[in-house]
Amino acid sequence: MLQSINPVNEELIKEYEEHTDSEIENILKRNDKAFKSWRTVDFGHRADLMRKAGDVLRNNRDEYAELMTREMGKPISGARAEVDKCAWVCDYYAENGEAFLNDEIIETDASKSFVTFEPLGSVLAVMPWNFPFWQVFRFAVPGLMAGNAGLLKHASNVTGCALAIEDVFKKAGFPEDLFRTLKIGSSKVAGVIENPIIKAVTLTGSVPAGKAVAEKAGSELKKTVLELGGSDPYLILDDADIDKAIPTCVNSRLINNGQSCIAAKRFIVVESRFEEFEEKFVEEMKNRTMGDPMDDSFDLGPQARNDLRDELHDQVKRSIDKGAKCLLGGEIPDRKGAWYPPTVLTDVKQGMAAYEEELFGPVAAIIKAKDEEEAIQIANDSIFGLGAAVFTEDLGKGEKIASKKLNAGNCFVNSLVKSDPRLPFGGIKESGYGRELSHFGIKEFVNVKTVYVG
Fold first, then answer.
1. 322-358 confidence digits (pLDDT tens)
2. Same domain for 301 and 216?
3. Which residue of 172, 177, 271, 444 shows the fewest CB atoms closer than 10 Å?
C-alpha cells in the first residue's frame, strides 16, 4: 500500500493500492501500443497537444499547487511557481521540438547523407518527491515531443501528484495510454526495467538509487540519464558585493524548504570577507519564518517526511561533534510534523558531514578559504558536481572561474543556480550523467540514425 502523509501534521491523506504484476504488464503493453501509433504523429499535432497540456496546467494551477503542498510540504508560493514552470516547458518544446529534431545534412562523398532522429519507445522515469511536478515534466515533455511514450514510477509519498500528472496529459488530448503512472514501490523497479518494452530509463534521486538503476539498466543494455545529488558550492570572493550576495545565497539555501539538489549548500568565503559574510548571512537566515506552507506569509514549511528530517538532524549533530559551530537553529522543534528550522554551521572542515555529504534541508555550511585559489580547490573537493556559483564584481573573472575552473554541470555568476528549459541541465561525478532540457535533453532518448545514400 502506498501512502501520502501530510508532513505538517502527520495525518494520512490517502492510501493507494499498488499495481499487481499482471496490471503492470498490461499497462506496459498498452503503453507500447500507444507508442507505435504516436511515433507516426506529425510534429504539428504533437505541438498542439503539448500547448493544451500547458493550458491545463495554468487553468488548474491552484489545485495542483495545493496537492503538492499537502503531499510534501513545499510553500504554496513555490508550488504555484512550479506549475507555471511546467506550463512554460510545455510551451517551449511545442515551439521548438520540431526544429531541434530536424534532419541534419552532412556533406560526404554520398549523393546524400544525413542524420535523422527516431524515438526509442517506452521510457521509464523514476522520479523524486521534492519537485513532484517539475521533475516529471522536464522529462516527459521533450520525451513525448520526440515521439516516445512515458511510464512514471514516482516517489510513493506523492502518488496523488503522479496521478494528477497522468491526468494532465489525458485532459490535453494525448492518447489514453501514452503516459502512464505505475503505482509500485522501489522493489518492483528492477523487474520493470527488465521488461523488453522498456527501452531506456531516466532517474532523478539519490546516488544509491542512481547506481542501482544504472546497474540494472546496464545489465539490460538500456540507456540511462541520471540526475543525482548535489552539494553546490557558492564562492564569495574578495570583491563580492556582500549585501547583494546575501539574499541570493539565503534564497538558494532555503528554496523548497532546503530540499533541492541545486540549492546552495556550501558557502566558501575568502578569509578577508568571512566575518562580514557570516554575520550578515546569519541575520538574514534569522529573518526567515517557518510555518503553515499553505500560508503565503511564511518562508518555510516542514521537511517532506519525519525520517528525512531525522537524517538531516543527524548530519548536523555529527558535524558539531567533529568541531563545527552551530550559529543558528540545529534543534528539532517540539511540535507535530517534520519541522526543521533554518540552521547555520560554521568552522566546517574536511571530514565533517556538512563538508562531505549533501545536506538536503535548510542547513547551511560556511567554510573559510585562505584566498580565491583555495576557495576553488574546496569547491571542487566533493564527490558531487551538479551546480556551483561564484560571487564577484569582476564579471570577466567570474565567467572564467565558472567556465574553466569549477567542476560542475551548471555554473552561475552572481546568481543562484536554477534550471531553465532553454539551457541543458545535469551534472558530473556522482551527480550523474546525461542532460535534460534544451536541445540536448530532447536528443537523449532518440536513435541518432545515420542515413547514407550512395
1. 999 999 999 999 999 999 999 999 999 999 999 999 9
2. no
3. 271
Among 86, 90, 249, 261, the one annotated catalytic: 261
Q: pLDDT (tens digit, 9 = 90+) per residue, 264-297? A: 999 999 999 999 999 999 999 999 999 999 999 9
How crowded is the C-beta side of 19, counted as CA atoms within 13 Å?
Answer: 23
Can you give the CATH number for the domain in which 354 is found?
3.40.309.10
Q: Are residues 245 and 345 in the same domain?
A: yes
User: Are 27 and 116 part of one and the same domain?
Assistant: yes
- φ and ψ of 23, to 5 deg: -65, -40
Comparing C-alpha atoms, which of 374, 369, 313, 308 is closest to residue 345? 313
| DSSP state for residue 357 in the 8-state scheme | S
Same structural domain, 209 and 246: no
Per the structure, the count of domains in the chain is 2
Q: What is the mean pLDDT of residues 404-421?
A: 98
Distance CA 149, CA 119 (A): 9
The whole-number pLDDT of residue 64 equals 98
Tell me whether strands 112-119 and 446-453 are parallel, antiparallel or unpaired: antiparallel
In a domain, 423, yes or no: no
- Same domain? 243 vs 373: yes
**Which H or E run contains 34?**
helix 21-38
- Let me know how many helices (H) and strands (E) the chain has, helices first: 15, 20
Catalytic site includes residue 261: yes
Confidence (pTM): 0.97
**CB burial of residue 316 (10 Å; 0-12, 13-18, 19+):** buried
Active-site annotation holder among 82, 227, 278, 436: 227
Residue given cell 521534492 in the structure block: 130
Is 90 an annotated catalytic residue? no
Domain that holds residue 197: 2-228+431-453
Question: Based on the domain organization, do 9 and 99 belong to the same domain?
Answer: yes
Cell of residue 82, nine digits: 512550479
Q: State the pLDDT at residue 252.
A: 98
